[in-house]
Write a structure and sequence with these properties.
Layout: H1 2-40, H2 49-57, E1 62-65, H3 72-82, E2 86-90, H4 94-106, E3 111-114, H5 120-131, E4 137-140, H6 148-156, E5 159-164, H7 184-187, E6 196-200, H8 205-214, E7 222-224, E8 232-238, H9 242-251, E9 257-261, H10 265-277, E10 282-285, H11 291-302, E11 308-311, E12 324-329, H12 336-343, E13 353-359, H13 361-373, H14 378-391, E14 403-405, H15 408-415, H16 419-431, E15 435-438, E16 446-449, H17 453-462, H18 467-476, E17 485-486, H19 489-496, H20 500-512, E18 516-519, E19 526-529, H21 547-565, H22 571-578, H23 591-595, H24 608-617, H25 624-630, H26 636-648, E20 652-654, E21 660-662
Parallel strand pairs: 1-6, 1-7, 2-4, 2-5, 3-4, 5-6, 8-13, 9-11, 9-12, 10-11, 12-13
Antiparallel strand pairs: 14-19, 15-19, 16-17, 16-18, 20-21
Helix pairs in contact: 1-2, 1-3, 2-3, 5-6, 13-21, 14-16, 19-20, 25-26
Length: 664
């Protein structure tokens, strides 16, 4: 009898636990949906988003693999808003960090960011706001995790979630490994009850396991959507006349926009100028341009005022333009991960889109040559490292934790190095955890008055020479007494009657008097030193960050070469297999499928013109004129382009009577 009571009691306990878990889950799900509706206006989540949000709100460590444009940010922003406390977001992309903070603030959600190059007072203010519960989101770059100020601050914060964006960077098997990411696991000891949400768009099975291990997951928990993009067709063209094919493809683009990726900065301008001369609306973008100019060009492209953006891989991170119909790679990428992510910017609106990789006989040789240049000999690495210290005027033993403006072209000119070896050396130093590179970004001037209200009057009496400027700050910059606000030195000069250089000089003097904090505008790339500058007699790169990384890079390059040379398997099948997603379902649209007769009318439904054309030709061949008449609802040039494309890809042919026919 006693055993029966014990058994019954255990059943009751388990039953009540089940009821509590169900009640908690239903309550949390309802809360998360209300947050989604309130701030984003969506009535429901996308596939997998709700599962990820539920797991996070249940306190489980979670890894989310969602494709580019799959809505990763909502997966941490919604649960963070639904729970008490602040969400700490680790991301290496400063431009994306600033963009997300701006979007959150626009929605009335308090958010701030901390990254290299900020004024120390601004950093301190943002930490204090997080500690005292005035923020819901604090974005930090990974190198900040090593600083004492961050560690002291996080001990005092109520952190409800640790979100790790671009989490593949924590894995040495990932294509973009960054040593500061390894510090993330160390900070978990200060927030032991806080779940971690790791997010990435691309990761192999090996990297998936490594991410969870290095972030100290209590148990494995992965949500992964398929890498398949059903609306995107991947085509590889072995084409000696790349420019001719490029022009045909872009010239036939009737709606939406395109991105053309190339490897070097000079080439972006050459191709963009040539396209303009051929009547194609285009501009170019790379990290060496002035930040304001980059922003202007990006805005023109985003608004559809420019159709084609010719760019290096510096363009695209955080870009969420839904109507990109074409992504064309003129040069071979270094890895399939990078290619997949860049190609993934096509067709985010789920409409038919195309990713094209143009390959010539020289490209494979160049890719292998670039691989060798990416790992300079150790003597060259030491020489460039020493020159870097001289250029930035850092003595041996100093520089740790300091951030310096860095103009690579100026450095190369001064010391006569090759651009590729300098860039590669800096990347090797970054992988070793010695420095962090950041691209230039537009950071407007900011100011904050530190003086109390009681001190303001006395200061103005004692220093009347600053009266005009101080009155301008107080009257025209709301919030300047409590927070950093943006100031335009040109506008301040116009309103006060001072020259711009006088405004800047007075702001610097006022900072010297500890009256205010002044952070001048910045648009230069920066280098942050994570270690002191070393004497090269005691300097070396570890085996795992040189020999092992070189071997890993060789395997990645081989995967790219195998991909472009494999003309027997569907392109989509090849890409999915690389990411450990096995399928025998061919896309029916890529260059391989079409050349092997794996196409069908159903597979061509993604392009209405091609579909109607094939339907018209199914019963009997037609002349070119007859084909254009059969597709009379479409522009003649669209039909001709469809015929050209289907002929180029082996679907159609021209018979002896010059009629268009479907090939057997």
């Amino acid at each position: 009898m006693k055993k029966k009571n014990i058994f019954q009691n255990a059943c009751y306990v388990e039953f009540y636990r089940y009821l509590w878990r169900k009640f908690f889950h239903d309550t949390m799900s309802e809360l998360s949906r209300s947050v989604l509706k309130r701030y984003w206006g969506y009535p429901s989540f996308r596939p997998l988003q709700e599962d990820i949000v539920d797991a996070v709100m249940e306190g489980r460590d979670t890894l989310a693999l969602l494709p580019t444009g799959g809505g990763k940010s909502i997966c941490f922003q919604v649960p963070a808003l639904a729970m008490e406390g602040v969400c700490v977001v680790v991301t290496p992309l400063i431009a994306l960090m600033k963009d997300q903070v701006a979007h959150l603030v626009d929605k009335g959600i308090p958010a701030a960011a901390i990254y290299s190059g900020m004024h120390p007072d601004q950093v301190e203010l943002n930490y204090n706001q997080a500690v005292f519960g005035r923020l819901k989101f604090l974005y930090v770059s990974p190198e900040r995790l090593q600083t004492e100020t961050f560690l002291e601050a996080i001990k005092r914060m109520k952190v409800n979630l640790l979100a790790v964006d671009e989490s593949h960077c924590i894995s040495q098997w990932g294509y973009d490994f960054r040593p500061p990411y390894l510090k993330i696991a160390e900070i978990r000891q200060y927030i032991p009850k806080t779940p971690v949400l790791a997010l990435t768009a691309t990761a192999t099975a090996k990297v998936v396991d490594d991410i969870q291990f290095r972030l100290g997951f209590k148990q494995k928990n992965v949500f992964q959507s398929s890498f398949e993009r059903k609306n995107v067709t991947y085509n590889v063209y072995h084409e000696p006349d790349k420019y001719g094919l490029l022009l045909r493809k872009l010239g036939a683009l009737r709606e939406g926009s395109a991105i053309v990726y190339v490897r070097n900065r000079k080439k972006t301008q050459i191709i963009a100028d040539w396209l303009l001369s051929m009547g194609v609306s285009s501009t170019f973008y790379h990290a060496g341009l002035d930040a304001r100019l980059r922003d202007d060009r990006q805005e023109l492209w985003m608004k559809g005022k420019v159709k084609v953006m010719v760019a290096t891989n510096a363009f695209g991170m955080g870009i969420d333009k839904p109507d990109v119909r074409l992504v064309i790679h003129v040069d071979l990428p270094d890895s399939l991960e990078a290619y997949f992510q860049e190609a993934g910017r096509a067709g985010r609106d789920l409409k038919p889109s195309e990713a094209i990789l143009l390959v010539s006989d020289e490209d494979v040789r160049k890719l292998e040559e670039n691989l060798l240049l990416s790992f300079p000999e150790m003597d060259r690495v030491k020489l460039i490292y020493t020159a870097l210290g001289n250029y930035l005027q850092i003595p041996v033993g100093a520089g740790k934790g300091m951030s310096y403006p860095f103009l690579m072209n100026d450095f190369i000119r001064n010391y006569g190095f090759k651009a590729m070896e300098v860039f590669s050396t800096l990347r090797l130093l970054e992988k070793e955890g010695m420095i962090v590179l950041s691209d230039s970004f537009e950071e407007p001037s900011k100011v904050r008055i530190k003086a109390s209200r009681d001190d303001l009057y006395r200061f103005q009496l004692n220093y009347p020479q600053f009266d005009l400027l101080v009155k301008y700050l107080l009257r025209n910059l709301p919030g300047v007494l409590s927070d950093f606000v943006i100031i335009s030195e040109e506008t301040a000069a116009q309103k006060t009657g001072l020259r711009v250089d006088q405004v800047v000089a007075q702001l610097k003097q006022l900072e010297a008097y500890n009256f205010l904090s002044y952070a001048p505008r910045n648009d230069k790339p920066r280098i942050l030193f994570l270690t002191e500058l070393l004497d090269t007699r005691y300097f070396s790169l570890s085996k795992e960050h040189y020999a092992d990384r070189k071997k890993d890079a060789q395997e990645r390059v081989k995967s790219v070469i195998d991909f472009v040379r494999n003309d027997q398997e569907c392109r989509s099948v090849q890409l999915l297999r690389y990411f450990n997603e096995i399928t025998d379902k061919v896309c029916g649209r890529c260059d391989v499928c079409l050349s092997h007769g794996n196409h069908s009318l159903e597979a061509c439904e993604y392009n209405q013109v091609q579909h109607e054309l094939l339907c018209a030709l199914r019963d009997h061949p037609l002349t070119v004129y007859g084909a254009t008449q059969a597709c009379g609802d479409h522009d003649e040039e669209e039909v001709l382009e469809a015929i050209r494309w289907l002929v180029d890809n082996g679907v159609l042919g021209i018979d002896k009577d010059d009629r268009v026919v479907i090939k057997k």
